[in-house]
Structure to design on (130 residues):
């Protein structure tokens, strides 16, 4: 399904997340691992945390109201785990973060956003763009 205009920015932000995940996988086990992880942690604060907050403040409450409790719960659980992993200082956390972030983005693109487009009103979706 084509992405509606209201979700397009959030969907485009997923690209940044996938770039971070790729960077983490590539850096894991290298001499530059620690430096790369610090950079990824910094990008998380700038790129992904605001994305998560928008979803949590606008999109997820609307989906909860529409009865999509399981999708909302999974999204929130992923956000909690991603925040936990990004705060750790280990190669294992970096790899786990990259894998979960990739899975999470695929889930949002294939399931969460599809359901949002089908179940939410134009006004509810427009609130995301504001």
């Amino acid at each position: 399904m084509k992405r509606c205009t209201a979700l397009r920015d959030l969907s485009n932000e997923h690209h940044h997340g996938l770039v971070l995940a790729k960077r983490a996988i590539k850096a894991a086990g290298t001499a530059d691992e620690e430096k790369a992880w610090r950079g990824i942690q910094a990008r998380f604060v700038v790129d992904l945390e605001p994305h998560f907050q928008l979803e949590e403040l606008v999109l997820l409450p609307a989906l909860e109201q529409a009865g999509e409790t399981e999708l909302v719960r999974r999204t929130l659980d992923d956000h909690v785990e991603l925040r936990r992993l990004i705060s750790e200082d280990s190669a294992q956390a970096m790899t786990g973060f990259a894998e979960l972030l990739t899975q999470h983005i695929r889930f949002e693109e294939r399931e969460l956003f599809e359901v949002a487009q089908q179940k939410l009103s134009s006004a509810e979706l427009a609130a995301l763009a504001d």
Q: What stands out?
A: The radius of gyration is 15 Å.
